Amino acid sequence: MLKNMTKNEFNRLYALVQDKIGVEIGCGIGNITKAISGSCKRVYAVDTFDHVKVEEFVEYVKDCKNVRLIESFPHLASKIFNENELDFVFVNGEQTESGIEQTINDFYPKLKMDGVIIFHDYHTEFFEKEVLPEVKEICDRYYKVHDGSLDSMVWIIKRNEL
Ligand SMILES: C[S@@+](CC[C@H](N)C(=O)[O-])C[C@H]1O[C@@H](n2cnc3c(N)ncnc32)[C@H](O)[C@@H]1O
């Protein structure tokens, strides 16, 4: 069982990324990375590894052949991808207001039409007051209507805006 996610969230995430290629921002030691690698086609795992050791991540996912590590800030990592290339972006790392905003601006254009951007830590009731994330405020500002939400996870599907 994953420590940082509810069972509902994980099951939905697993379904959203099934057979898809995408990015996980804030992979940490790779708990979620390893778990979703069983569902997705390929996942690029992005982290700065300031608080966890990259070696731990590498060891933890060593048998997952569809995991690619990007040790970097999300902003720099985003430059690797072309526009309309990714099926999913799962954001679970940068939780400052400016960081989330930057991540949306950097990665949303990289999504294919019908691709999905998924945010964890949206609903604040799951957290202690002193570590309240800013995800809700930013998501609500950028996307007035979410396509889906479950516990503290929300997702938005990219559509042709004609
Ligand atoms: C909530 S933890 C993620 C836990 C991880 N998904 C797991 O299952 O173990 C947040 C992660 O985001 C990373 N992080 C924080 N700020 C970041 C940033 N600006 N860019 C990339 N990663 C960042 C941290 O290093 C940490 O590993």
Written account of the structure:
30% of the residues lie in helices and 24% in strands. It is α/β, with parallel strands linked by helices and 162 residues long. The longest helix is centred in the middle third of the chain and has 11 residues, at 97-107. The model has no long low-confidence stretch (mean pLDDT 90). S-adenosylmethionine (SAM) binds at residues 4, 25-29, 31-32, 46-48, 50-52, 73-74, 92-94, 99.
Task: Please name the defining characteristics of this protein.
162 residues; alpha/beta; Rossmann fold; seven-stranded mixed β-sheet; binds S-adenosylmethionine
Give a brief description.
By secondary structure, the protein is of the alpha/beta class. 30% of the residues lie in helices and 24% in strands.
How are the secondary structure elements laid out?
Elements: H1 7-16, E1 21-25, H2 31-37, E2 42-47, H3 54-60, E3 67-71, H4 74-78, E4 86-91, H5 97-107, E5 111-119, H6 135-142, E6 148-150, E7 153-157
The structure holds S-adenosylmethionine.
What name does the CATH topology carry?
Rossmann fold
- In the CATH hierarchy, what is the superfamily? Vaccinia Virus protein VP39
- Give the mean pLDDT: 90
Kindly provide the radius of gyration, computed on alpha-carbon positions and rounded to a whole number of angstroms. 15 Å
Order of helices and strands: HEHEHEHEHEHEE
Question: How many discrete structural domains?
Answer: 1
Ends apart, CA distance between termini? 42 Å
Question: Count of helices?
Answer: 6
CATH class equals Alpha Beta
Structural class: alpha/beta
